[in-house]
Amino acid sequence: MYRDMASALWNCCAEKLNVRRQYLVSDPLSREAVLIDTVLDYEPASGSASTATASSILDFIHANGFNVKYILETHAHADHLTAAQYFKQKLGAPVGIGAGISQVQRAFGPTYNLSPSAFTGAFDLLLKDADELKLGSLTCRVLHLPGHTPDHVGYVIGDAVFCGDSIFQPDVGSARCDFPGGDASVLYSSMQRLMGLPSSFRLFVGHDYPPEGRDALCVSTVAEQRAANKHAKTGVSQQEFVHFRSTRDAILGEPRLLHPSLQTNLRGGRLPTEEARLGFKVPM
Ligand SMILES: [Fe+2]
């Protein structure tokens, strides 16, 4: 049953090394469903946004009779723009994110000259650890998984966990922790929490950066992660992880879509042109 729940999956914006995932998960009996980490097509050179990919997902939703109850983010992404507002407009479902988003909004608001009031009502649901959302006969349980970002959450539906960027495929390891509010020691704890789930649980990632020689993947089991996670498999200490992560993060550049992503995603997916008829700000 759970295999079917996770079968509707798109591989969006497949760049050379970064494959982003967005998920539609449904209760096979009631057809009630949830969208996780949707993506708006965006071309930075021209500043043009498109709902082409989102529209194809919407067509799939309608063709299969899914009743989307929630549009969820695992966190405020820094590398792509969410399509949450498009889906909300089309489907009428609420947009949810981790309650820690307020910390991210406070951290980045001044960078873009966004006052606190700019974030009022940005999201319909602010989710806390252990919150539960109903999907027909299924339950979507919230796991707070900070470290990559403070708002980061995962969603547990049956034996499937939608992890966002709190863990990557075993041969990729872990996500950066150098954004404001990020913390490598906290991410280590979140990864340990995921790896403490039952061995057969499936961890669906938000990205894959496949090494040369393998295709992009979206899922591994907890057992596989414990045995082989490149950065935090069983036996790696928190100290070792933090040392590796800090060294690695110190040489990483900013994500290409950092500024348009944050200005959109901190406001639940609203583009600046809706209010100001202006483009995105790029701080110097
Ligand atoms: Fe991320």
From TrEMBL:
Coiled-coil annotated residue ranges, if any: none
Keyword entries, A-Z: Metal-binding
GO biological process: glutathione metabolic process; hydrogen sulfide metabolic process
Record domain Metallo-beta-lactamase: where: 19-207
Highest taxon, organism lineage: Eukaryota
Single GO term (MF): metal ion binding
Gene3D superfamilies linked: Ribonuclease Z/Hydroxyacylglutathione hydrolase-like
Keyword Ribosomal protein tagged: no
InterPro entries: Metallo-B-lactamas, Mito_Persulfide_Diox, POD-like_MBL-fold, RibonucZ/Hydroxyglut_hydro
Keyword Metal-binding listed: yes
PANTHER family: PERSULFIDE DIOXYGENASE ETHE1, PERSULFIDE DIOXYGENASE ETHE1, MITOCHONDRIAL
Protein name listed in UniProt: Lactamase-B domain-containing protein
Species of origin: Mycena chlorophos
